[in-house]
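Quick one: examine this chain and its backbone structure tokens and tell me how the chain folds. Here goes:
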Amino acid sequence: MAQNVLSFLVLFFAIFAFSTVVESISRERVYLESQCRSALYRDLCVRTLLPYMNKKVVPSPQRLAQISLASCLSKARVTKTYVNMIAKRLNETGKVQEYQALEECIHQIDNGVDQITRSFKELQQMGTDGNENFVWHESNVQSWVSAALTDITTCIDGIAGGGIGRKEKAMINARFVNMKQLASNSLMMFTRFTTRYRASRGIKNP
């Protein structure tokens, strides 16, 4: 009898703990879905931000924009490393045509990583050096992330028309598409943050 009661209590608390976790995750997901509703890739937006949610502290729009851009930067760096590895292998194995098809793409992804890095650093400065500099920071981030998106799109188009093998092309393309989606979502989260920040402080639109 005592063993049955103990088993019941263990099961009860396990179910209670699981329900609490599910409820917490559900609340966090609902919150993120509201924040990501304007994103072109809403499911990706929620999946990107959900691991960083803290049930005790609701992240600010600026914090969400920082997380989104940091995730994009991380993906861009991994993609850059992968493309360089493929290009090196193609060059070493004498596949000159395929290597040349990747050369321009390598240049563009280098630019893209640099622009996203600068954007992330700029975003960290926003709100720390006065409202008079806010619009200037905002313009920089928008310009750099938009330029990175253009570089990524150009690279995707170049790979599609290049002489790269089907397998390598598919692997590279998948990484660039994901990077493009993350950059697009980051730009949306950034715009959401700046719009609210300006409205709360009476800063005019740029």
Notes: The first helix runs from residue 2 to 35. The radius of gyration is 22 Å. Residues 4 and 165 are 64 Å apart (CA to CA). Helices lie at 2-35, 42-49, 61-92, 96-125, 134-161, 166-201.
